[in-house]
Fold this sequence. Notes:
The chain is α+β, with helices and mostly antiparallel strands. Helices cover 38% and strands 14% of the residues. The protein is globular and about 80 Å long.
Amino acid sequence: MRRPLPLRRLPAVLLVAGLSVIGLLLAPAGPALAEDPRPTVDPAAPTPTSPYPDGPPQGSAPDGSTVGGERLDTRGQVTAPGAPPLPEGIDARGWLVADAGTGAVLGARDPHGRYYPASTLKALTLLTLAPVLDPALVVEGTVEDEAIEGSRVGLVRGGQYPVDLLLRALVMQSGNDVANALARAAGGVESTLAAMNETAAQLGAYDTVAGTPSGLDVAGQSSSPYDLALILRQLVTDPYRLDVLQTRIAQMPTVAGYEGYQIQNQNTLLSDYPGTLAGKTGFTDAARHTFVVAAERDGRRLVVSVMQAERRPVHELEQARRLLDWGFAVPAGAEAVGRLVEPGEVAAEMEAAEQLAAEKTAARAAAEATSAAEPVGTAAAAAPGSTTGTSPLVPAGLATGALVIVAATVIGRRRAVLRDARSEAASDPRGG
C-alpha cells in the first residue's frame, strides 16, 4: 500500500498550521488522523545484512501517484509494445531501460522498488557536491577517513587531496573514505545528507532516501531503478561531471612516507562496451550487486539500471550490457511504458496543487465565516448562558488561519525564486 510523503518545506508547514486553525474552528470535534511519515533512515536500527525477504517497499510521489506514469506502478515486468524479447540471464530483481534523450522508458521490472542502493548512491553524492565544492579546494585526510569501513581509496591522515581528485576517486574506486572527506568539506555529513535528499526530491527521485554519503547500508536508506536512471541521466548532461565519470586512471599523491599509487575505474564497460558514457557500481550484503550505466550509439543515448543482482550465472555488468543491446534494438519512437520526469517537474506540480487547495480552503472558510456571523439588526442577542450564539473566537481564528495561508504562499513563491537562482548556478559546467 502506498504511503504519501508529508510536506517538508516551511511554506508547507505554515500552510498546514493555517488550515489546522480553520479546521479546529469549523470541523466537528473528533480525533485527528495522523499522516504517514516520509520514509527516513534509522541509524539506531540494526544494520541490514541481507535483502528484504519479501521484496522492498514500493515508492511513489508525495501525493501517492506513480512518478513517470501509471504503467510503472508494477512489481513485475513491463516492456514497450513491439519490443524484441528480453535477453536471457537477467536476474536483477529491479531494472529499467530508458532513452536518456527523450526520457522514454522502454522497459522495466519493479521500477519503483525501494532497494538498498549500495555505492550507486555515490552518483547522487557527486551530483549534489560537485556544484558546491571548488575543484581546486584541498581537503586534508583524517583518522576518521582512515578508519571508515568498506571500500577505501586509501586516504591518509594529513594527506592533501584536491576536490577534483576526490570526486574522481569517489566514482572510480568507490571510496567510502573519499565520500566522508567530501562531506566534511561540504559542511559535514548531516548537511550533506540533507542536500542529497533535497537534490533527489528536486529530480523527482522520491524513492531515494540518503542515509550515508557513501551508500553503506543503514536501515531505511533506499533508491530505485527509476531513480538511479534519473540521477545518472542528469549527471551525463553536465560536461564536468561527465568528465569525472569517464576518468579511467588517476594518480593518488605521495603522503608522509606513503608512496603515490594509481587507481583504475571499476566500471569496465568504459573500455569493454563501445559508446559507454558513464556508470557506477555498487555492492553490499543487503543490496547485493547494483549498477547504473549510460551509453550512446548512433546519436541515441540510453540509461540502464540494475538492482539486487547476482554475479552468477551472469555478472551484473553483463546483465546491463545485454539490456543496453536490447534497448538499442527497440525502435526509436516506440511507444513508451513511462517516462523519466524532468528536474523540478513533480515538485512544481505538487506546489501548484498545494497552492490551489489552499486558495479553495481559504475561500470556503471565508464563506463559512460570513454565514456564521450574526446579521446586523437581528433580534436581541442571545440570553446569558445560551449556547446558540456564535463565539467571537471563530472570526478571529479564521482570520488568523487565512493570514498564515497567505504567508505560506508568499514564502513559497520566494523559495521558488531562490530555487531558480540555485538551478542557474548549478548549470556552471565546472560546478564551482
